[in-house]
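Minutes, project check-in
Item: structure for the 250-residue chain
Input as provided by the requester:
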Amino acid sequence: MSSAQDPFYIVKEEIQESIDALQATFHQWEHTPVASGAQTRLTNELLSNCESIEWQVDELEKAISVAARDPAKYGIDPPELERRFKWTRTARTQVVNVKKSVMGTDLNGRSSSTFSGMRQELMSLPSPRQQDRASHYIAKDHDDFISSESDRQLLLVRQQDEELDELSESVQRIGSVGLTIHDELHAQEKLLEELGSEMDSTSNRLDFVQYAVHDMAYQCTGFGVHDMLHWTWTETYSCSRSSICKMKKT
């Protein structure tokens, strides 16, 4: 199976694109002013995307584990399996590093949204308006993620339906061509049979005519057809010699 047709590489490409987008957002987060609304929004977006990508990587790794139970069935050799497992480990490490950088952990094991969020917690508690705004961003990002995943699944289903329709049309065309060839061969076979029958009938009629001519010639002259032809040639030869002799005497 080629890379373009292997589901692993299709999913891998999608996950890699999500990781690239995650890292771009993370770089934007690093340069965003601390304790600002923009940083809170980016923090929520990063954490939501990390969870989504981690889930996708886990599902992909489960699929690889299933293929590892019977590699021959899926046409995958051990080195290829190892490369796939290695890629999932690398992808998970990239996501975990971003998640740790965003969340941060103090010496007592307490987690906060960010390093700046931990400083903000020490300085003052967030106002209810800020909490509502953060909740709004989380809900919005969650809805956007669900919507994007739903659209992606619908697109995949639509693509599969189109491929199945094309395959069905190809099978129908092949079946139609096969029936046409079968009909043509059957018609040619009938023509050959009719031609053979006509040749046999013509041969029988020729034999009958030849026998009738031979019989008629025998009844009229007492000779068969071959004897008549021989007699006619002999008489013609004798007459020709007599004429030549007369011409010489003259």
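Outcome recorded: The chain has a mean pLDDT of 77.
No further action items on this chain.
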